[in-house]
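Appendix B.2, paired examples.
Example (i):
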Amino acid sequence: MLIVVSPAKSLDFETPVKTEKFSKPAFLSEATELVRDLKKLHPEELQELMGISETLAAENFSRYSNWHTPFNLDNARQAIFAFKGDVYLGLKAEHFGASDLNFAQRHLRILSGLYGVLRPLDLMQPYRLEMGTTFAARGKKNLYEFWGCKLTAALNQEFEQAGQKHNALINLASNEYFSSLDTKALKATIVTPVFKDWAKGQYRVLSFYAKRARGEMAAYIIKNRINSPTKLRDFNVGGYKYSEEESSSDRIIFNRKQKS
């Protein structure tokens, strides 16, 4: 069973990391190719391309100017500790023990516009390149076209190596990032947990809370060593409860009346 999550725009390369274990990204050559073209852009061009402020454009111009290989613990950081958005606030990887990190390394995957797909301990240097950005190398029109079937093939290879009779992919990523995968070609049953909060007289997906809950679900899977989608129904972190009547085999719905 594999879990996929989105990356985050917010990064943390300052807080000390407890482990010196690391791995190398599988698609570092592709990332290098993308950065080579990003280095050619001026801050004003980055601002227009990414729809960001002048300050953020200057920051990312500096990031890409300084981006270089080979990666090591002095110039890069393990991905699971580098991202600090809502999903990662829910994940709380800083509280993982060594065995948790080992399980996460085998089962958690982070989809990325620049790095393709990252394992938790894969080293990365700071960047900003959302999957939906209309930018790519090799004359491709966008990153979806640039990555093509590579990310799907990488996950399928992992499923084959696991040697399980029934494979499951737990989708905790946003639509923007999950769209980088060819769901029809994936050799796994796709299960998408959906988190709803009570608002204005009905249960609805509230982005901020849903992102946090995705991270909490990923942590729940890792901490409890879950290897079957059916066991996800017991998730009750933060006051969410499984809704059997709304759920289906590929969408597991969790509702929350009040935050706990």
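Example (ii):
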Amino acid sequence: MSPTVNRQFKLAQRPVGMVKRSDFEFVEAPVRDPEEGEILVKILYLSLDPAMRGWMNEGKSYIPPVGLGEVMRAGAAGIVVASKHPSFAVGDHVVGALGVQEYAISNGKGLVKVDPKVAPLPVYLGTLGMPGMTAYFGILDVGKLKDGETVVVSGAAGAVGQVVGQIAKIKGCHVVGIAGGADKCRYITDELGFDAAIDYKAEDVKEGLKRHCPKGIDVYFDNVGGDILDAALSRLAMHARIVICGAISQYNNTEPVKGPSNYLSLLVNRASMTGMVVFD
């Protein structure tokens, strides 16, 4: 029996500061049949990523903002339940930006077929999806990681940060993670194999970096921005590389985003700071 009702969350207004329930509208809409060249996907898993906060804002960015009244953009994994597309069959599993809804009509652009026998579907939204690809290309291609270097990653317990740290460990690096709370810090050291963790909620980050990175930081992978970025800038090694992946500490600001105050450390240490977007 074909589905008849689609439940969706749409962006009702631009959030100011922290996101509120009133920023979204929950709607029920009829499910239409796919036309030629289209498929109907039943969404099974959603990926709620920090990047979604930026997609709600107006202004220039690496991707157009979600329009008011549009289904909230989100990565998702699902199964094809109807198809009039030559490249997709009923029963195929796919991942892509299908949105916060139960069903999605797609022309197939941007969708990737995946095999749940190889890995569980949620893994294709994490380690084998956008977060994992961000970590892999960010630390290796943008960060130009070399064996045995000292690596620091903020947001270390998050989907991107934890993969960055594990890749760096495979490369024989000394890896320090910055995370918030004792549980997250235990997780990245005891389960993920980081060499050390700094709890930014309980200790001074600059002092922690001084203790765990006595020769300085060769690669800093930044997911946080703000004061933690400034702390990392104060501890750079010569020819260090900083990868700017995100700035989650700034996403809910009502004032302009805070820039680094220690940026002259880039000059002194002949270091570089490079932004990266996995969609490139």
